[in-house]
Inverse folding.
């Protein structure tokens, strides 16, 4: 049976990186709900109008709206043999909707959570810098640039810190994640479908573990 991989992890845990690696190495489809909502909003139809209205209001997209976009995206041919979900489900209502969708599509759900201590995540996020030209990500503690606060690929460009990477905002993000995600982790754990990965390991080691679970 083909699989839907639900990747979970706090902001900065590396789930986006692991989703990309799975896409590259296993030739699977990576679906980020944030990306598909932004992309879908560029189109000209009733659903796009609805998404744009939500974006303009600054509110979170409803469970129903997110599910309709996910259902539409996963109906494409490239998702027929399974896919990786990054950023979905975020609520119990979405998890229940995904169960129904998986049954209709004939897929098995496998949930993987990348565990990283919050203290380490705070250090990662507050030390993060990026190049405003190419988007390359650095970290003053774990991946510093060759020249102080200058991009390796654009030496004339000074690196910047994202506004939401301040210590206070990072703490709020992690607390919000913990509140929202604990019920989902408990849900998949009680169903015997949860796999925990030590997110403090090197990304190649983490990828190898995830690949082993999927295969």
């Amino acid at each position: 049976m083909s699989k839907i991989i639900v990747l979970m992890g706090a902001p900065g845990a590396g789930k986006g990186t692991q989703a990309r690696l799975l896409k590259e190495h296993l030739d699977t489809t990576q679906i980020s709900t944030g990306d598909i909502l932004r992309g879908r909003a560029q189109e000209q139809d009733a659903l796009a109008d609805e998404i744009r209205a939500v974006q303009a209001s600054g509110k979170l997209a409803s469970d129903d709206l997110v599910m309709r976009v996910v259902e539409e995206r996963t109906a494409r041919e490239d998702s027929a043999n399974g896919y990786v979900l990054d950023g979905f489900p975020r609520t119990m209502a979405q998890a229940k909707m995904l169960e129904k969708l998986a049954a209709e599509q004939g897929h098995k759900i496998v949930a993987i959570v990348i565990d990283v201590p919050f203290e380490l995540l705070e250090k990662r996020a507050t030390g993060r810098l990026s190049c405003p030209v190419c988007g390359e990500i650095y970290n003053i503690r774990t991946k510093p640039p060759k020249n102080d606060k200058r991009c390796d690929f654009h030496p004339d460009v000074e690196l910047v810190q994202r506004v939401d990477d301040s210590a206070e905002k990072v703490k709020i993000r992690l607390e919000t994640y913990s509140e929202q995600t604990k019920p989902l982790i408990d849900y998949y754990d009680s169903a015997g479908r949860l796999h925990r990965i030590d997110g403090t390991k090197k990304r190649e080691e983490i990828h190898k573990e995830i690949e082993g679970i999927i295969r």
